[in-house]
């Protein structure tokens, strides 16, 4: 590194402090100090307790609900901008509100675009995130986006399982591109679940496109929320003769009764990353750390070198 390039500083949003500490450690540095002052009505004010003038800073925080998590990210970005940081990179391992990426019915917002604009207005000059709900969300930003793929960290674990007669499955039509990418790399077959919803998080009907008889199936998705889709898909596949069913999802939202649903399901295992802190766990849940990947990419960003070799799929 050139001697005239100042070392970057890392700051964490409250909800992602544990992950941010792991990223900073993997990078070889410590987190900067952020003090959060709170008012009795719920309003809060973050303050950066060290100078960032002329430096690149990384603000690390997933923006899953509640909305305070997003608001804290925005306020820290604004604080850094007003403190004359040179580059402000928002590191958002899980980009929340991304399921609202289009108008699928009248009079609804496109929340993903709104949040992209809010992040840029607050001061972000670059975004680093992983497995967006839809790739085209990158187009909502006018600033550079480094869109990382969790396959980089999941693929070594999948290969270590040494599963014979492996088949990759998509739990819905929208995830078929992701499933085909995994299957191409693993040289496996692909099946797709077709589902119809009554409303958000409620499935009315599911059908299976493809053959899973005598196969070890891995369902691939970007997130697992209530786990209803994965549980129903696993049950359907076991009924159709699958030897085993595992699920792989980048972001473990695991809301409502998700943990119980996983424990009572036909799933052999649920593999997730730690982009979202896991409040409760299960013997069926395997967490693959994402901190080394983020730290590596952030090092390349700081040194203005290519990250193209970080993408397996």
From TrEMBL:
Residues 9-123 form the Ribose-phosphate pyrophosphokinase N-terminal domain. The keyword Repeat does not apply. GO terms for molecular function: ribose phosphate diphosphokinase activity. SUPFAM superfamilies: PRTase-like. Its EC number is 2.7.6.1. Keywords: ATP-binding, Kinase, Magnesium, Metal-binding, Nucleotide biosynthesis, Nucleotide-binding, Transferase. Gene3D superfamilies: 3.40.50.2020. This is ribose-phosphate diphosphokinase. It comes from Urechidicola vernalis. The lineage of its organism: Bacteria, Pseudomonadati, Bacteroidota, Flavobacteriia, Flavobacteriales.
């Amino acid at each position: 590194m050139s001697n005239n390039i100042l070392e970057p500083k890392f700051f964490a949003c409250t909800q992602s402090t544990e992950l941010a500490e792991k990223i900073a450690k993997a990078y070889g540095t410590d987190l900067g100090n952020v003090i959060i002052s709170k008012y009795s009505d719920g309003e809060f004010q973050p303050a950066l307790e060290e100078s960032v003038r002329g430096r690149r800073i990384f603000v690390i925080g997933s923006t899953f609900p509640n909305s305070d998590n997003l608001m804290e990210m925005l306020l820290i970005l604004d604080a850094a901008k007003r403190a004359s940081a040179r580059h402000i990179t928002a590191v958002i391992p899980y980009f929340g509100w991304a399921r609202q990426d289009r108008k699928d019915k009248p009079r609804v917002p496109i929340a993903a675009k709104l949040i992209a604009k809010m992040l840029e207005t607050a001061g972000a000059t670059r975004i680093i995130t992983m497995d967006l709900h839809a790739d085209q969300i990158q187009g909502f930003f006018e600033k550079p986006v480094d869109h990382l793929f969790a396959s980089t960290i999941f693929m070594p674990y999948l290969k270590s399982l040494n599963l014979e007669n492996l088949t990759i499955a998509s739990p819905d039509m929208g995830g078929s591109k992701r499933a085909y990418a995994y299957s191409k790399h693993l040289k496996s077959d692909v099946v797709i679940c077709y589902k119809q919803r009554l409303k958000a998080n409620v499935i009315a009907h599911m059908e299976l496109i493809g053959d899973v008889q005598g196969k070890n199936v891995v369902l691939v998705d970007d997130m697992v929320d209530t786990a209803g889709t994965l549980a129903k898909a696993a049950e359907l596949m076991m009924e159709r003769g699958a030897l085993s069913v595992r699920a792989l999802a980048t972001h473990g939202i695991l809301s409502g009764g998700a943990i119980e649903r996983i424990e009572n399901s036909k799933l052999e295992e649920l593999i997730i990353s730690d982009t979202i802190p896991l409040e409760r766990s299960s013997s069926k849940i395997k967490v693959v750390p994402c901190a080394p990947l983020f730290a590596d990419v952030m090092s390349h960003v700081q040194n203005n070198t290519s990250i193209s070799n970080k993408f397996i799929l």
